[in-house]
Amino acid sequence: MSTATQSLRPLMDPLRRAWRASPMPGFFRWWGGELLGLLPLRWRAWFASGADWYLLQHSDAQWTLRRSGHAELLANWDDSVDNPAGDARIAPVALDAALRNVDREDRRLALLLPPAVVLRRVLALPLAARDNLLQVVAFEMDRQTPFNVAQVYYSARELATPAAVGRFNAELVAVTRGTLDPLLARLRAQGISIDAVDVAVANDRLGVNLLPPEQTPHRVRPRRRLNLALAAACVLLLFAVLGAWLHNRQAALGEMQAEVDSMRSEAQQVVALRQQLQDNAGAAGFLAQRKKNTVSMLSLLQDATARLPDSAWLERFSVDNTGQIGFQGQSQQAAKLLDTLKDSTLITDASFQGSIQPDPTTGKERFYLTARVHQPTVGKPKSSALATGAANGGSAP
């Protein structure tokens, strides 16, 4: 085990314990089994590959090899007194022959110790000890066992059994170095590298590792590297897909914005045309209304001609924008002109401007008379009539 791995172990152990205690491992096992059942038979063995544990046991100078969880023997060989060093060719050949169909990357070997040579103690520890379980049991070694830390190889595992409030149960597993070192030396002499040292429990293992960290073999895992590369590729593809999706959405948004801008421009043009039409219609209506409510010049001339006597003649006749009428002329009896215009429906408020003066040339009286155009009465709005009726205390008819 490298120094970097050892330094990260205190950080990784709490994460591993939290992961095992969560429901996620069970979910992923179920999900993986369901997905595996959908694959063809040829592919299932390849996708189902993983750590495949094989168990080595030594008893009476006899080595046996079994698969974890199975009782049948896969291989056995001897390192009896007749062959004290163990032939370095026999063991690996027998081992390779038994495991020839197992992927070397998935193959794991564990040396199982008989329960009789292993010391196991259940400890009730505070919950705070979970993060540093190995260090805690190392401190407890002198008190819980007849050995000190330098005399044993040890491990610890958390138990699922109920404990007192604020505590949890853990199991200390230890074996003396004098028991394990000779077995490890025999395996090294035979050229066999193991991944763990555990305790035999029926046809399986207990689930601890008593192998010293410095003797744990370093494995090159090309499949893990491939998986990491594939995972990185998947992440890159995911970001690429998200980027493409965002780009497409941005492009679609740009097209929609351009279409909205075009429609807005057309709508503004329509509004401008409608406003222009309303303005033109209003101007035309205003002119028509003003024409309707304005007395024509021809009518004024006709009315003045019909009412003025034949002995009177005009030198000047003017009408300004305010409806002011000016009469300038001569008449034999200018003072009677007001009586002739009194009953006019178009000319009203007639009066002389200045004094009447005789003209020695014509023998007539020169006058300047002003009047106003009598605008035709326009019907009062309905609202005005209602207001008038309300003011008089009555109701509008």
UniProtKB/TrEMBL annotation:
Transmembrane segments: 226-246
The species this protein was found in: Rhodanobacter terrae
Name of protein: PilN domain-containing protein
UniProtKB keywords: Membrane, Transmembrane, Transmembrane helix
Domain of life: Bacteria
Pfam families with a match to the protein in the record: PilN
Sequence segments annotated as region (Disordered): 378-397
Residues spanning the signal sequence: none
